[in-house]
Amino acid sequence: MRVVVHGGGRMARQVANVIDEAGHSLLALVSRNRPDWLTGVDYHESLDALSELPDAVIDFTLSGGTSQAADWCRARLVALVSGTTALVEDDRESLRRASELVPVLWAPNLARGPNLLMRTVHETAHALGDSASVEVLDIHHFEKKDAPSGTALLLAQAIASAWQVPLDDVLDLGETARSEPRAGRISCISRREGDVIGQHRVTFKTAEDTLVLSHDAADRSIYARGSIEAAQWLTQQPAGLYTGADWLSQ
Fold first, then answer.
1. Which CATH class is domain 112-216?
2. Domain spans of the chain, in order of start
3. What is the pLDDT of residue 177?
4. Does 144 qualify as catalytic in the annotation?
5. Under CATH, what is the fold of the domain 2-110+220-248?
6. What is the pTM of this model?
7. Residue 89 near residue 43 (C-beta atoms within 8 A)
8. Structural contact between residues 34 and 43, judged by C-beta atoms closer than 8 angstroms
9. 145 part of the active site
10. Which entry of 140, 200, 205, 215 is annotated as an active-site residue?
C-alpha cells in the first residue's frame, strides 16, 4: 500500500517512522511547512503537487486541513483515514461529501485499545443504565489544544447512546463537570500536564459501587500503527463513512 501522510506534527512523524516495518511505503509527506525531522521522503506543501496517486491518505492535521484532504481525495477517488480532532463543521461536511465517492474513516483515536474501551464503555452504560453518574477524564500533554479530547467526547457519546438520549442533554463540561456527580449525567474533565501521551478514565458510580474503565498509552506508535492498519482495511471497502468501531468489528 502506498500512503501519503497529510500533516507534519507528532503523529505524522510516528507514521513515517513505522510504515516501512509495517510493509507499506510512504509516497510523500504533505504539510504547510517542512518538518525539521523529515529526511529521505518526498515533501510537498500541497496535495495538488503530488505527481503520483497513493492508495490512501492518512490525515493528521488541524481544523481546516481535514476538509482540504477530503476534497482532494473525493476528486481523485483516493481512500482517506483521518485522525484529526476538534473538527469544525466544514471538515465534517467535507468528510461526508467525500464518503459519497470514496471510503472515508474518521476516528479521533486510531489505536485499537481506546476503540475497544469505547465498546466496553457502551456495554457497561447499557447494563448499568442512567442510575449511574459517569465521569470521563482525559489527561494529555501540555501541547494538546482541544479539551475535552476527541476520544473523551466519543466515550461520552457511547454512554449517551447506550442511555438512548442526546449527548448534549446529559453532558457537563468545565466547572459544572467538577461539581458533585449526579445520576444520569456525564462529566467530562480534562487535564493537560507534562508529556503525557494519552490517558482516559471512565468512572461509573452508583449507590452500591464504583466501576473504573481505563486506557493508558505508553507509546505514540500505537496510534500510527493503528492508522496504517485502518488504511489498509479501508482500501478494501466501498465508498462510505466509517468509524473505528467499523474497522475493529471486521
1. alpha beta
2. 2-110+220-248, 112-216
3. 63
4. yes
5. Rossmann fold (3.40.50)
6. 0.82
7. no
8. yes
9. no
10. 140
